[in-house]
Amino acid sequence: MGRHVLPYADESTVRDAADSVTVPHTWLKVPMAPEEAGQWLPPGWVADKEESGHLMAADLRTTTAPVAPKGYTATGESRDGVVHVQVYDASGECAAQGQMAVLGRAVVVDRVTTEEAHRRRGLGNFVMRTLIDHAVDGGADLGVLGATDDGRALYETLGWKVHAPLAACIYRP
Under CATH, which number does the domain 61-140 receive? Predict the structure, then answer.
């Protein structure tokens, strides 16, 4: 299983990327509507409308030294160029998390999630602000991410803008 993200969408790029995949359950993210991407996919591929969303970007600036909401603790670490942030509840269970890959002056934010029982408590905001502060401290000034409909609302409050639909395609031979 893996993921490929295409920076632009045209028929030959989408077909070539999909044709290069041999491992089932590999994802291909394409900056276009899932209905359009589905027309260019070879057999075995599905454009998953449930997983599709929005390609978003933001000019990054330091926030205000985020503090974990009351009752939660946070950890962060960097491994192999990827920064990971986790937020834990009082029992030590993971309540929220996110990660980002640093690519020079740009970062790609990925897998920001808050567990259902912990939503609407500011945890997603805290994770994003923590990641952004780390990115800016490291010299990054551009952030990119793929957002679900639910995530889009959070990211827009933090200044992120939608630039394109984002089709999520999966190889299911």
Answer: 3.40.630.30
Enumerate the β-bridge partners of residue 168.
Answer: 29
Q: Can you say whether the dihedral through the CA atoms of 124, 88, 72, 131 is positive or negative? A: negative
What's the pLDDT tens digit per position in 55-77? 999 999 987 789 999 999 999 99
* CA separation, residue 159 to residues 1, 51, 108, 144, 156 (Å): 32, 23, 15, 12, 5
Within a 10 A sphere around the Cβ of 95, how many other Cβ atoms? 26
Spatial distance between the Cα atoms of 140 and 93, rounded to a whole number of angstroms: 31
Q: How far apart are the first and last CA of the chain?
A: 13
Domain boundaries, the chain: 3-53+166-171, 61-140
Predicted TM-score (pTM) of this structure: 0.86
DSSP 8-state assignment for residue 92: S
Q: For residue range 19-63, list pLDDT tens digits in order.
A: 999 999 999 999 999 999 999 999 999 999 988 999 999 999 987
